[in-house]
Structures are given as structure tokens and as C-alpha cells.
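Dear colleague,

Following up on Tuesday's group meeting, I ran the structure prediction for the two-component complex that the binding team flagged. I've pasted the input sequences exactly as they went in, so you can double-check that nothing got truncated or mislabelled along the way. The C-alpha cells for the whole assembly follow below. Feel free to forward this to whoever is handling the docking comparison.

Inputs:
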Amino acid sequence: MTGARQIVAGLESAGVTLVASVPDTWIGKLVEEVRRSSAIRVVDVAREEEAVAVACGANLAGGRGAVLIQNAGLLNCGGILAGLVELYRLPCFFLVSFRGDSRDPIYYHEPKGRVTEATLQAWRLRYAIADRGRDLVAQVRQGVEAAAESASPYVLLISGEDLA
Amino acid sequence: MSARKPLLDALVSMLTPRDVLVSCLGANARYLPHMKVPSPVFALCDSMGAAIPLALGMALQRPDRHVIALEGDGSLLMSPNVLATVAAARPANLGILLWVNGRYESSGGQALPPAPVDWAGLARAAGIRHVESARDVAGLRATFPNARSAGEPAVLVVEVAFDPAEAIPPYSERPEEIRARFRID
């Protein structure tokens, strides 16, 4: 099973009903796998803050939403994380492509890679870096559950090689 | 052009328990807790631009309910991209009431950048087909039922007078109270 399929299986097993996404190369591949799921609706949005609100709306309406974006998009989301997700104590699970880390072959992502974890820590968000050597299905499911149980954001950072 | 409160009164009088209301920050969110609203209300007190995508997520999750987003022109000017997102998702059960007064009312009534934005034209250009405008209570009463029965995303552009002396009540509910009370049966 590919890593992308395992990630989608994790979303399915956690009861995710809706994924809101802005693609990059890696997230785009993952979203194509999500579109093959009969349990999850994909909502293509124009900007990452929208994805957060759409996922939260699904959660408030009794479903489970998730956000699939690049780390550049996550960096856009400081305002809505503070003013919606944290303020109203809403669960919000993020799958974020970790561009610019040591595994990323594209040089121009490097500045984003440098600040991603520092920003997550400054924003006091719980996060993990996906470990391809362990059960990806479980890592995704646990992330969704962690967001739901704590009524707060949870970010799982993934790399392109996690999707293979 | 009508004052805000009569417009809001007219809207609330047309709501049913099958509707769901999502309000952006500002005057509407501050008035609503003091009104007898028959539908669930999720009112924002921050996060400009979140009302429409929040309502979109609800509408997609609950196609059996009609979800209405109250958005301000200042908030939409900050994130007009959401109109294209709504047009692409095409929920049959989402209505957007855009309150246009040309002001950032919540922060003291500062003027928006003075561009002659054609709000109805902007919505149509983004791909939303059902777009109407209302300038007063009669106009809102005439157009709102059309938006609710459109069977596709609808935008109502509501022109509202800005009154710097309007006695808008302060926020009276904490976000955690709004979250705890909000429920779509």
C-alpha cells in the first residue's frame, strides 16, 4: 500500500468526512488519493484560511473536517487559528507538506522549512513529523483523535517521500 | 437605504428552525443574542473572512439544512477568493447576505478603501449565478425567499446605512458559550 493510501486510510478510520485543501505538488498527489475515497468529500478552496474555516464548519455540523495544505499555507493561518480555532476551542486536524526540510530536493522551499517548526512552537500548536518507518494509518488516526479530544489544532507534517 | 436593525429584524422574522445562521464579527453578531432567533446561531467575534467558509463547511456537511452566512463588505474585501470556492463547491443550501456599508464598523467606522466595488458583479464574476440586491426591508423580504429556494449558492447584497450614533449592544456571549450552545439537530 502506498503511503498516500495509508494516509487516506487513516483519515477514513478516524471518521473524517470532509477534506478542505489547497494543493502543492505533494498535497496534490495526496488529494488525488482522497478523491478515490467514497467516505470523504474533497472541497477545493482558493486560500488556506478558507480550508480551516470549512473544516471547522464541518466539525460544528456533526462531521469531521481536515485541512490539507502546504507549510506556506499554514504560515498564512495564524490569524484564523487564533481568532477561530483557538478562541472557540474547535478541533482542527492539519496534514501539512513540510517543504524545505532536509528531504526536500527543491532549493527555494528552504526558507519555509527553516521556520515551520519554530512557528508551530511559537503558536503553541501540537504537531508531529510523520514517520514512514512506522504505521502511517495509526499516525493519522491518532492526529485526528488528538484534535477531537482536545478541541484544538493538531498538525501532522508529511514529506513527499511519505506518499510513495 | 435602511438602518441595520430593521433589516436584521426582517431577516430573523423569515428564519425557521431548519435554517442555520453564521454571522461575521460586528454589529449583527452583537445584536443576535438579544433577539429571538428560531435557528441555531454561530456568531464570530473575530476572524474576519471566516463566516462564509465556515457556513460552507456546515452546508456541505448538512445538506438537509439551509445555512445563511452574514458577511460584511470589509471582511469580504479581505478574502473575495471565497466566492470562487463557493461557486466551485455549488452547495444547494447556502445563502450569503453581504451587508454593505463601506465601513469597518467594528473598529470605529473607518472607511473601506474607496474603490467603487460592484459587489453583485464580483459575485457573478466568481461564478455565483443567483445574485440579487436589496436596498431596504421590502427588498430583503422580496429577495430572501428566492435565495433560500434557489437550489444553488445565492448572494444577496444588502445595502445598509452606517450610523455612527447607533447604539449597538456590546458582545454579550463568550466564544465558549456560543460553541457550547450551537447545535444542529
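Chain A has one domain: 3-163.

Cheers,
M.
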